[in-house]
Amino acid sequence: MSKINTWKLWLPIISLLIFFSIVELTFRFLIIHKDTNRTIAGIVESDPDLIWRLKPRLSGTLATNELGFRDTTYKQNADLKILLLGDSVSWGDGVDMQQSYPFLLEEMLNQDYPEKTFEIINTGVPGYSTFQQLIYLKKYGIKLKPNIIIHQFCLNDVVQRFNVLYEYGGDNIFLGIDTRNSIQGFQGWMINYSRAYETIIRYLINFKKNKQEYAVKNLSKNHLSPELLEAWELTLNEISEIAQIAKKEKIPYLLFIAPYRFQLEDPNNTNQPQIRLKDFTKKNKLFFYDLLDSFYLNNQIYGLPLFNDPSHFSVEGHILASTRLQDQIIKLMQIQN
Length: 337
Description:
Elements: H1 3-30, E1 35-36, E2 44-47, E3 51-54, E4 80-85, H2 88-91, H3 101-112, E5 118-122, H4 130-139, E6 148-154, H5 160-164, E7 173-174, E8 177-178, H6 185-193, H7 195-206, H8 226-248, E9 253-258, H9 267-270, H10 272-283, E10 287-290, H11 292-302, H12 315-336
Parallel strand pairs: 1-7, 4-5, 4-6, 6-9, 9-10
Antiparallel strand pairs: 2-3, 7-8
Helix pairs in contact: 1-7, 3-12, 4-8, 6-7
């Protein structure tokens, strides 16, 4: 074969490689990775299953214990261990650990029932939603042999993944963690190493979706979009699986709902998410407790600022939450006995 024919053979391949290289470089210069919630980046690290987790043995205000959580030293031999599955609300965003409702709840129980030793295992991590709480329970939480499981649910658990996880069309980077790493195989390799491929795939994921729908306030509408119906289906399936694990292990399970601040303005017209969850738990014979009514009444009577921001409790909010939750735990203890 002559050199001219060889060149003719390679020319289309070389042209194609040059074309894809230009496309890739263009995407790399034009598409910038966003890091959502950079304010607490640095306290988490990558995890192959959970995508991110708190760094163990952190010191200072955001210190973590031997289990890797923002909590006191783990009391393995406590008489009654309560596993708390939660997110940044339970983690205590905006307050000291000693001001958070899990810490206050443990203190109250140990003070009011001195004949027993109580341990609240606070596994709350910023940004976690139901799928991560389910994974943690399966891999780690159930091995701690809890006597009670409390699942703290925040309304953004329904939409969080669609805003912060690449797999669902969200950001590439969340809390300093590259969320693309959770995607395995050849597609995962391409997504991690080709900005053009990564951008095109995310576009395809979002092509038929209205990203504006993934806002917490939209959950309070009477008629939900297909996006939110899909999100609710995923979330309720994960709650159901958590409850099934608890049932299999004969552990009382409580779904505990943390409201949003906007709901206090008009709870009767913004409580559709709570109604949906209440109907779900009633159908599946699960224990359910919603803080919305207590927060609303307290706000109306005392006018206390129960939130520091749209979703995270103030010190007063944590105190009220711990008080109300103690009553629910006592009921679960009575059922258990």
